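Example record used in the benchmark description.
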Amino acid sequence: MKKNLYIALAFVLSGTNSFAQFRLEHLDLSVTGGSDGIGFELATPINDRFRIRTGASFFSKSSNDIKFDIEVGEFDPKLTLEQNKALSAEKFNKIATTLGGVTGEKLNQQVNIIRDISFNNFKLLFDFYPWQNKHWYITAGFYWGNNTIYKYYNTTANMTELMMVTMYNNMRKSALAEEPLITYNGHSVYLPYTFTSDIVDYGDMSIVIGQYKHDVYAQDDILWDYDSFDPITGEVLHQKGDVRYAKGDLIHKQGDFYHMQPDENNMVKSNSKINSFRPYVGMGYEAFLTKDKRTSLSVNAGLLFIKIPRTTLHDGLEINNDLWLNNRDFEKSLPYSPPYPVFNLRITRRLF
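Model output (structure tokens):
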């Protein structure tokens, strides 16, 4: 990255003496469109070898083609993903029937994820004409724009499902702690024993999106946030505030399935970030469309040098470093590795 920046800087500085003699004699207005979005540019020649261009480009897109299943319980690494999903679906259907009877809502197992892409840039570019044929030129410069380019979040329609996930997991904690579901004015309401025994055995609800690439250790002491009793003997398994994992303890082994739960707002979210400053190098060809040479068409191709996009989930887990994904739609939707190819067309009209 730094090497490319230095090359671009050296290219620009090579014309410094000529720039000092610059006078604004012509000004061109362009409309652009391509892989970096649609936009506009203003350009003016500095001398017979250099031209400066500045402008902006805007790219935005929204899609709703990523789907996750709500899973129940821990996945067994000894079983295939399909086998784990089949067992989970059986448990989910039983739970959905019970919760649907209580809430009057139909609980769907599938959650749809919206992907928003926003790639907006200011750009400052310098064109160099190295040959006598003034149709070809070499370009160096930079783009500057937003660093959060991808955002993922569940649809509004799935808020009910994710709220049910949180509610079910809280119900399971109450069952493990042998606490009432509701206490009001000294009266307590408990879940039916048959249901509590089932959900204790079933495990929590979550969304499984991949497996850990490496062992995960506790950075600090992690405490239990609820009491738990053995459902048969009544023996205390742990109490709220007990140490669940001491600092340095192994939490997840490499290959364990990662179970994502909704955040405090009953949503699942992630975002992808890159660097805001993005050096650019490329090449272009320009042809005049009119005899007076005031209107032209340009074809440009080049590379934007960006860092590897970092995609972080709402709980802080970084997909690039931490997970192997098992959702192909999600994996294909992530930003691909740099450099970013830029190809665009530019229609230009000379203003004066």
